[in-house]
Design a protein that fits this description.
The chain has a two-stranded parallel sheet with strand order 1-2. α2 crosses α3 (about 30-40). The chain has two domains: about 5-50, no CATH class; about 60-100, no CATH class. The protein starts with 6 loop residues before the first helix and ends with a helix. It is built from four helices and two strands; from the N terminus they run αααββα. The protein has helices at about 5-20, 20-25, 30-40, 80-100, and strands spanning about 60, 75. It is elongated, with a radius of gyration of 18 Å. It is mainly alpha-helical and about 100 residues long. The model has no long low-confidence stretch (mean pLDDT about 85). The longest helix has 20 residues, at about 80-100.
Length: about 100
Amino acid sequence: MIIKNTDYSIKFLKKWAYDEELYKKYEHHFWWDQAALIHLLLNNELDINQNSIEFEYGVLQHFGKNDKLNGTYVYHLAGQSKELRYKTSQDYLNKLIVKSAA
């Protein structure tokens, strides 16, 4: 998520993070913060759909294998070992270095 520093963004973040009703509704959900965000989007609260852009999966982030990065901005390795995270990052940097040298 990329958020511009505006009054609207601050209002949105406060709603998402501190709204008691949202918290109570989703506090037992495995990913309560994501469930609350989906709720805001589906119900267009704070006119979120007119004030945000949603990209397709893979444009900004990726959870797949290292060979599928293809220039995504964020690559998630949640739950993976420190060694795998380091190796994946190093492999990606090496690909970038090779690309820029060509």
